[in-house]
Write a structure and sequence with these properties.
This protein is mainly β. It has a single domain (about 10-100), classed as predicted glycosyltransferase like domains (Thrombin, subunit H, Beta Barrel). It is about 5% helix and about 40% strand. The chain has one helix at about 90-95, and strands at about 15-25, 30-40, 45, 60-65, 65-75, 80-85. The protein has a six-stranded antiparallel beta barrel with strand order 1-2-3-6-5-4. The longest helix is centred in the C-terminal third of the chain and has 5 residues, at about 90-95. The protein is globular, with a radius of gyration of 19 Å. The chain starts with 14 loop residues before the first strand and ends in a 32-residue tail after the last helix.
Length: about 130
């Protein structure tokens, strides 16, 4: 009989990256912004920057291009913690450039160019 240790679960493919996500912890109405350090189909590792959480806490994470993903805090070590997703995701979708869709959080949507300094003939105005 072979018991699977926590070290053996580290073989899951994960993407190292740096992106922001908004996270809500069950029982706490406020949303916090966290830094996602790595992402796999089954979970993520985040740096909470002062977030106080514990193992087993249920969370909702708004990920770029994916919308809201449900999960559970699997481990906590200092300001960093791991989240296991309830359903697998495609991490490549989160890595793609931000889309301007309904499920995309406002802070990751692309900045749209404005024509504030351009007149009708599309010439630059003197300021």
């Amino acid at each position: 009989m072979n018991d699977m240790s926590s070290l053996e679960t580290r073989n899951v493919a994960r993407d190292s990256l740096f992106l922001f996500a908004e996270m809500t912890f069950e029982g706490h109405p406020e949303t916090v912004r966290v830094k996602v350090r790595n992402l796999s189909a089954g979970g993520l590792m985040a740096d909470g920057g002062g977030v106080s959480t514990s193992r087993g806490a249920r969370v909702q994470i708004a990920l770029r291009n994916l919308g809201v993903v449900n999960g559970v805090v699997a481990w906590v070590q200092g300001d960093r913690f791991g989240v296991a997703f309830e359903k697998d995701i495609d991490p490549k979708v989160a890595r793609a450039p931000a889309q301007d869709g309904e499920g995309t959080p406002r802070f990751v949507k692309p900045i749209l160019p404005t024509n504030r300094y351009v007149d009708e003939e599309r010439e630059v105005r003197s300021i």
